[in-house]
Write a structure and sequence with these properties.
The chain is about 45% helix and about 15% strand. The protein is of the alpha/beta class. The strands form five sheets. The chain has a seven-stranded mixed beta sheet. Strands 12-11-10-15-16-17-18 form a seven-stranded parallel beta sheet, sandwiched between helices. The chain starts with about 30 loop residues before the first strand and ends in a 31-residue tail after the last helix.
Length: about 900
């Protein structure tokens, strides 16, 4: 029934209010108890989905005596068991006369209005009170249940108050709970520390005036005297004999004795004199709880295995969770191996099993603490899975070792086109990833309340305190598959990372590559699980990133916005991270991959597949940056809404690319490396970029042949200098042999800056670049440029002033303009000066601020959808939003 008009004014005795003990007041003399832990009496399925699959799978398999032993082993003076809606586990210890034990229960109750589910832990309960709770049906009505607690003066705490159990909890329920319950659990060992911070701030906001306001608003009278002064508790919420005693509630004892009686302990807790301490939860901890419950479930069913060695392996793995599967005898193992060898039709085991057998021992040797805890004698202080950080690192190392061991076999099976082996390796990789599913699930689970926590914290924060999410700086995680490569995309990302570092912005760059990356504090390169050279592009790599390591890192960073720079495996990790954290995704359309695929393979089906993938990839983005107006159409063709497309202001580090780096002696240094002839006095025509078909290099080859012939006829000396590498280089070298073309390979840092500034003009025929960072760098270095009229580079070139924009199918025009510029020194000088001046408007500082503003806008728009708004009632950043692209918007010139 509805309770909008229900007055809960019931007779009740007042609890003593003896003051609050501050954390600094209890260095010694604490009586401690883990006030929230479970035994095998918590026998319902761990969740509804599991219950549908395994109706007999319980949420806990811990014997009550083992719970007691572990609590004592970890220094608890008093012990309780708070099973879900059961007291049978605790009764076992009461009947057996265990000392220092308090009978407890975790009661499931519901709001009758909408069936919002809560858990409330109670202590000092008796079998009669438990039966009364059942007979009165109090679980179905939180108001009657709370009144019953007050009437009987039962010690209690609203457990994990911000845990959304059935999707219905919101601020309305919390406000009523503030009126109904005296005790609140502020630290739960299975939930993230963020919960504690927000709960404690929420409790601090419950002033007498606020409680009076809530009572009038909800028309409910508080059930407890001084209801704003909450009793606070903490407990591990352990379900697997992993964390008992690591999270606790403490009360200062008497002068004569540290340990006080159970009744006195509860009285002091409920009077608000307790302190809380120990560990909060995290994703690895929850994953290990799930793994432990599963292991005990499997062990209890006494599984049968097809062969003894699998049985032995399962028995060994179960010990990590403190579960016992009796191993096969040595005789059975030997007989099974003999039988397998004598069977002519025997099938080889999956690669994952062979790799696990080979690497489990060596990897375990690196973790002696875990190895020692495989001994059941150690389990009172925790099985291996209780060592959460070590265990997570061990699993990462073991999975990496297994993947690496299987990699060569997988490549071999692909080359041999062995279908059976290909399937076996696919199954093996699935097994390895399935083993990490508890970690993945837990990361998502631990973050599911994030939006609610931010909203609650915002609503209870005083303006100007910096507590509200709107009063702290934004955090961004940028995902990229390319960072150590030599290309414009890498340089742009590095520019953004460096600018964030120097301006104090919280931006982290996440990548996974075998290439060297800048050693900056905001760049995180997580070692790939697997990597190999990309076909046709030996200087590029294909990697399989360590998904769980990346997600754990992101879980610690807790970014507000995810930026995905590339649509590869690392970019996909960014997608998963955004879903996990429930934050907006933005990204840059750096590369026109459909155009690349079309040029490389000349296959319409491949191009369509690439277009479909790109649409899938970019569709969820809140905003998609394009680095030029020209590629708005490309994004529109992929089905991206125009209102989500933002043209990012082009930018480069003009301090690193300018005419000040000019050094005529650089050509002599390069000649000394073996590039004969390059040191002669001549006009240097520079190309920087990947030497591949999709960069339209065949056009450059054809043009240079004709230009070279014409220059010889006129008696003018010029050299084509190619900086970069790629699959077309070998053929290009052959075709331009004897035509004054020099191939320098990759050049980095200041040397590249010097090459730019010391050349005379720049040529870039690509039709697939969304911007062409090298075109900006060359102009900033004082070079006139020749670019195609297809793609982004033309938008940073003033045709006829800083260079020429030419049709890619008009080779004669390229020959004519290039020849003219080579032969006309004054024209080159004037165009180069204009080019350098035009790039001053594109300093990376301006581009970065635009980049940051758009992300900030997306973040605040997202918060606005959650109801988190600025104090003036509006969502979004104070500054004006960046203009979005429209069909009618003119192309941006360098001057604008």
């Amino acid at each position: 029934m509805p309770h909008a008009n229900w007055n809960l004014n019931r007779p009740r005795a007042a609890l003593d209010e003896l003051g609050v003990v501050e954390p600094g007041d209890f260095p010694t003399g604490l009586t401690r108890m883990d006030m929230h832990c479970h035994s095998y009496a918590s026998n319902e399925p761990v969740n509804r989905a599991v219950g549908l699959l395994f109706s007999d799978m319980h949420e806990c398999y811990s014997p009550p005596e083992k719970v007691y032993d572990q609590a004592k082993a970890r220094g608890m003076d008093l012990v309780t068991i708070t099973d879900h809606d059961q007291i049978s586990g605790g009764i076992e210890l009461v009947e057996r006369g265990f000392q220092d034990f308090i009978l407890g229960e975790e009661v499931t109750v519901f709001f009758p209005e909408d069936r919002c589910k809560l858990h409330v832990t109670v202590w000092g309960i008796t079998p009669d009170l438990h039966d009364e709770l059942e007979s009165l049906g109090l679980r179905e009505d939180v108001y009657h249940f709370a009144a019953w607690l007050a009437e009987h003066q039962i010690a209690h705490a609203f457990a994990h108050p911000l845990y959304v159990q059935n999707g219905k909890l919101r601020a309305w329920h919390l406000e009523r709970c503030a009126l109904l319950f005296k005790g609140w659990e502020v630290l739960n060992g299975a939930h993230a520390s963020t919960h504690r911070r927000v709960v404690e701030r929420y409790i601090d906001s419950l002033t007498p005036a606020r409680l009076q306001q809530l009572g009038e608003q909800h028309r409910i009278e508080p059930l407890w005297n001084r209801a704003w002064h909450k009793a606070t508790t903490a407990g591990s919420d352990d379900h697997g004999l992993l964390n008992i005693g690591r999270t606790w509630t403490g009360v200062v004892g008497d002068h004569k004795s540290k340990v006080i009686s159970p009744d006195e302990f509860l009285r002091r807790v409920m009077s608000g004199r307790a302190v809380v301490g120990g560990r909060a939860g995290h994703a690895s901890l929850l994953a290990h709880q799930l793994a432990t419950v599963t292991a005990h479930f499997v062990a209890q069913r006494q599984p049968r295995f097809p062969e003894p060695r699998l049985h032995y392996l399962a028995a060994k793995m179960a010990r990590f969770a403190g579960a016992v599967i009796p191993p096969p005898s040595k005789v059975a193992l030997a007989a099974g191996e003999l039988k397998r060898r004598l069977n002519p039709r025997r099938k080889k085991p999956l690669p994952v099993l062979a790799s696990l057998k080979a690497h489990l021992g060596p990897v375990l040797e690196k973790y002696p603490n875990l190895k020692d805890r495989l001994d059941p004698a150690m389990w009172d202080t925790g099985a291996p899975l209780s060592q959460h950080d070590e265990m997570a690192a061990f699993v990462d190392d073991l999975c990496s070792a297994i993947n690496e061991a299987m990699a060569s076999g997988a490549v071999r099976s692909l080359r041999n086109r062995n279908k059976v082996q290909i399937v076996d390796h696919l199954l093996s990789y699935l097994v390895v990833h399935a083993a990490q599913l508890p970690y993945l699930f837990s990361l998502f689970y631990q973050n599911k309340e994030r939006n609610m926590l931010e909203k609650l914290e915002h609503e209870t924060a005083e303006p100007g305190t910096g507590v509200s999410v709107l009063e702290r700086p934004m955090r961004v995680s940028l995902f990229t598959d390319t960072l150590g490569d030599v290309n414009g995309v890498c340089r742009f990302i590095q520019n953004v990372a460096h600018r964030a570092l120097t301006t104090g912005r919280d931006l982290q760059v996440i990548t996974s590559t075998g290439f060297e990356v800048p050693p900056w504090s905001n760049i995180f390169n997580l070692e790939p699980v697997f990597s190999t050279k990309m076909p046709k592009y030996e200087h590029l790599e294909i990697v399989l990133p360590p998904i769980m390591k990346i997600l754990r890192h992101i879980d610690k960073h807790q970014p507000d916005v995810i930026h995905i720079s590339t649509p590869g495996p690392v970019g996909l990790c960014g997608f998963v991270a955004a879903k996990m954290l429930r934050v907006p995704v933005l990204g840059v359309y750096h590369t026109d991959f459909p155009a690349y695929v079309d040029r490389l393979f000349d296959d319409h089906a491949f191009t369509k597949m690439c277009e479909a993938y790109m649409k899938f990839f970019y569709d969820p983005f809140s905003a998609i940056f394009t680095r030029s107006h020209d590629y708005v159409q490309a994004l529109a063709k992929l089905g991206m809404p125009r209102e989500r497309i933002v043209r990012l202001m082009p930018g480069l580090e003009t301090s690193k690319f300018n005419r000040g780096f000019r050094d005529e002696t650089v050509w002599e240094k390069i000649a000394a490396e073996g590039h004969r002839g390059i040191a002669r006095e001549s006009v240097k025509v520079l190309y920087v970029g990947r030497v591949s078909v999709e960069k339209n290099i065949p056009l450059l080859v054809n043009v240079w042949k004709k230009v070279h012939a014409e220059l010889r006829r006129r008696g003018v000396d010029a050299d084509l200098v190619v900086v970069g590498d790629g699959p077309y280089r070998k053929r290009m070298e052959q075709e331009l042999k004897g035509k004054d073309a020099h191939f320098l390979g990759f050049r980095l840092g200041q040397e590249l800056s010097t090459l730019y500034a010391s050349a005379d003009l720049f040529v870039f025929p690509s039709t697939t670049d969304t911007l062409g960072q090298v075109v900006m760098e060359s102009q900033s270095s004082g070079l006139p440029v020749l670019v195609s009229d297809i793609g982004g580079p033309k938008e940073v070139v003033r045709d006829g002033e800083t260079g020429h924009v030419l049709r890619p199918d008009d080779s004669s025009a390229w020959v004519d303009r290039l020849t003219t510029l080579i032969c006309d020194h004054e024209l080159r000088r004037q165009m180069g000066a204009d080019a350098s001046h035009s790039m001053e408007h594109f300093d990376i500082a301006n581009s970065f601020e635009h980049f940051w503003q758009v992300h900030e806008q997306a973040w605040h728009d997202h918060l606005g959808t959650l109801g988190i708004e600025r104090r003036d009632g509006r969502a979004g950043v104070p500054a004006a939003s960046p203009a979005l692209l429209t069909d009618s918007e003119p192309v941006q010139s360098a001057e604008s």
